[in-house]
Amino acid sequence: MTDVEQLLRETLADPRHRLDPGPGMYDTVRERAHQRRRRVVQVSSAFTAVVLIAGVATTVGVNSGHRRADQVAAPSITPSPQTGQATSVDLGKGSTSAMAVTSSAVYVARQQPNELLQVSTTNLSVTKRVATPDAVDDIAVDAAAGRVWTWSTTQATVADSGQSTGTDSTSIHSYATSSFAIGGAVKIATYTFDAAALDGQLWLATNDGLYVVTTAASGPVATKVISGMVFSVAADVVRHRVLYGSAVSAPAAANSLGSIVIHEIDVFTHSVIGVGTPLPIGKESIAIVGDQIWVGGYGSGSTPRLFHLDGSSLQPLQINGLGADPLELGPGAIVWPGASVVWVRSGGSEGLACVDPQSGALLEQWPAVQGPVASVRGDAFAASDGSLDQLSLSGDCTG
Amino acid sequence: MNRADEDDFRSFVAARSPSLLWFAHLLTGDRHAAEDIVQTALAKTAAGWSRVRRKENPEGYVRRAIVNTHLNAMRRRPWREQPREHIPEDVDSRRREHELDDRDAMWHALAGLPPRQRAVLVLRYYEDLSESDIADVLGCSRGTVKSQAAKGLLHLRRIVQKEDAST
Fold this sequence. Notes:
The complex is a heterodimer of chains A (399) and B (167).
Chain A: H1 4-12, H2 25-63, E1 82-83, E2 86-89, E3 95-101, E4 105-111, E5 115-120, E6 126-131, E7 138-142, E8 147-154, E9 169-176, E10 182-188, E11 192-198, E12 201-206, E13 209-216, E14 219-226, E15 230-236, E16 241-248, E17 259-266, E18 272-275, E19 282-289, E20 292-298, E21 306-309, E22 316-319, E23 333-337, E24 342-346, E25 352-355, E26 362-366, E27 373-376, E28 379-384, E29 387-391
Parallel strand pairs in A: 1-26
Antiparallel strand pairs in A: 2-29, 3-4, 4-5, 5-6, 7-8, 8-9, 9-10, 11-12, 12-13, 13-14, 15-16, 16-17, 17-18, 19-20, 20-21, 21-22, 23-24, 24-25, 25-26, 27-28, 28-29
Chain B: H1 3-28, H2 31-46, H3 49-52, H4 58-75, H5 97-111, H6 115-125, H7 131-138, H8 142-166
């Protein structure tokens, strides 16, 4: 019989769990301390200005009661970037596991009970609802094809029983956006990290390669296009291509996670038509907004986390660039595409930012929102901690 | 921060970072999250270092900041689950294989615990803190510490018993 407490002590003291700090540890800490101080000063200044203006307005109102409030000259006090608000959308029983958005609807996957909902972006009411065969992990919507794709994954890992379980698998279903009727299902024996819908196809980044699911007369068919682990995939609706990242062995920097390269695939021929240069990140995500490409990932020490790539050459235009007021990215950055902005979330304990995809300027931020985020012009939503949140958008962050 | 505080803080970070990272790794199970929360906790501490360095146990103060930073971050659970980190292969060949298997199973079992239960067990069995000290760190009652520890150990014991039964 194993002494659990003794084994726990030995496990916690096992030197294999020791981590060595990178050479830039102190500098990173100091920089983050400076950033924290700047934020505190910003918030304090804004608060002081608000109090001063309120005081001035009150005084003017008292001394000259006939003057209109808009005659008071108020200095601009908008802190940069603006901090946004998030409001939870009441969807009843269950928890939100994923969502995707079009100009008229938010598609929301819920668990307990397992359901797919269509929610109007106009009044946030549920307009369609269907039970799903399993707990959905993620969603992609293909508005042009009138299809919502959902997928559920199982992973061969140590389960609650403490034993290694089964095999990796992904179950994929498609639904018509008009009726919510299931258009078919297909299962592949691999674990899916990411997926993107484009031109009636679903592209899946999995631990066994890049797959594409197409719809035949008999239902969806999955085909492996690229072998090897693929962690990320993104759809480019402008150029009708998908981009995916794959790890390369040659380290491009002192990053323990190695490096990745972004590849470009033609969605009609399924052939690789472009390859970028190695980026020193791992666990990457890709966001394509118009002709702008952003790649976020995890690094170590002071290696970069965020790259802005040229849409044609896939070469970096900006590295870690977020204008004059950089977001604290922590151990990494995760990106999602909006209609006209790129969403960037810290890979660690900090928050979410709305970023101009061309300049990299930080437009608005939500310190307590985690994502994922999906937006169309004027509407943005995030799925955080099981709820669906609607994000308030300032004038600069258009969604 | 004046020059003396700056030098002291730099020395503290250089000397104690490995230990703090190890502690954070036990709390999070993920090296990148560990780096992030240690950096965040140290950055928070830096502003008041002149005060913190005069405390009886500055490292204890930083560890408390690490725990709280981690638990706050877990309340806003990151969306995309990252692939579980693989344990490095640099194992001592003299160790018996099944001992490593047991520890690996325990490490994976720890990953299945809620963050607060895991924090209680790390503080109890790695930091050797008393129940009242753990309650102080986590800002909860001793009763909560006891129940969280009991639930966590029960979960781990079930897993280990199943492992024993299968071998």
